[in-house]
UniProtKB/TrEMBL annotation:
GO terms for cellular component: outer membrane. The keyword Protease does not apply. Residues 1-22 form the signal peptide. One of its GO terms (biological process) is transmembrane transport. Coiled coil: none annotated. InterPro entries: OMP/PagP_B-barrel, OMPW. It comes from the Bacteria. It comes from Marinobacter mobilis. This is Outer membrane protein. Keywords: Signal. Pfam families: OmpW (PF03922).
């Protein structure tokens, strides 16, 4: 019985030691989970031809969204990796703010935020717990922008009424700084759990075309600093 117990204990120790052998140079880490983008938007005033629209204090806000997140890390050394963040397209409602805060939804957009970071893992590679920090660049591509009848009606009223019958929305893509903080916890030699967060400097200019019978009569603009916090929880697979 004693020999069986000792053998079992030794096997357990070997399993734990094996599980702790993580994040070596040349490893590839794939993480899949739920990712939540929470914009901390700061909006300028909507302008047309350099002048404020309406009372000059029209602003916008951006809602959050949850999607499937996928990240990958390639370990250049035991402590330095190159990380990439991707996700299925986020869809954000764009809402009225400032003096028109009660007007509701003005439009919507989808966006893809691929992010490239250099990651530093400070603990020894034998540690089961692997915190890391990263810094790099974010590129955000906005697409499938759309407006609501609320926005079209508000712009038409600001222009005097009966002037336009439609609006179009375009958002400039963004390049900016990205910061990252995360933790991998090894469960087996290849499988683990991960939690991570990012902050990204995402700035865009939204262009609102005032349209009558298919013709653009003018374009209003508003600068928006979206600057989201992005949170992800999921599984890590190392190979």
């Amino acid at each position: 019985m004693s020999r069986v117990i000792k053998t079992g204990a030794l096997a357990g120790c070997l399993l734990i030691a094996s599980a702790a052998q993580a994040h070596e140079a040349g490893d590839f880490l794939l993480r899949v989970g739920v990712v939540y983008a929470d914009p901390h938007a700061s909006s300028g005033n909507v302008t047309l031809g350099g002048a404020g629209v309406g009372d000059g204090n029209w602003q916008v806000d951006v809602d959050s969204d949850t999607q499937l997140g996928i990240t990958a890390t390639y370990m250049l050394t035991d402590s330095i990796g190159i990380g990439v963040l991707g996700a299925t397209p986020f869809k954000h409602d764009i809402n009225a703010a400032g003096s028109i805060a009660g007007a509701g939804k003005l439009g919507e957009t989808k966006q893809l935020p691929p992010t490239l970071t250099v990651q530093y893992f400070p603990l020894d590679r034998n540690s089961r717990y692997q915190p890391y920090v990263g810094a790099g660049i974010n590129y955000t591509n906005f697409f499938e922008e759309d407006t609501t009848a609320t926005l079209t009606g508000a712009v038409d009223a600001a222009l005097g009424g009966g002037v336009i019958d439609d609006t179009n929305l375009r958002l400039d893509d963004s390049f900016g700084l990205a910061l990252e903080l995360g933790l991998d916890v090894q469960l087996t030699d290849q499988l683990g759990i991960n939690a991570a967060l990012w902050w990204a400097d995402i700035d865009t200019t939204a262009k609102i075309d005032a349209v009558q019978n298919g013709q653009t009569l003018g374009t209003a603009e508003v600068d928006v600093d979206i600057d989201p916090m992005v949170y992800m929880v999921g599984l890590t697979y190392a190979f």
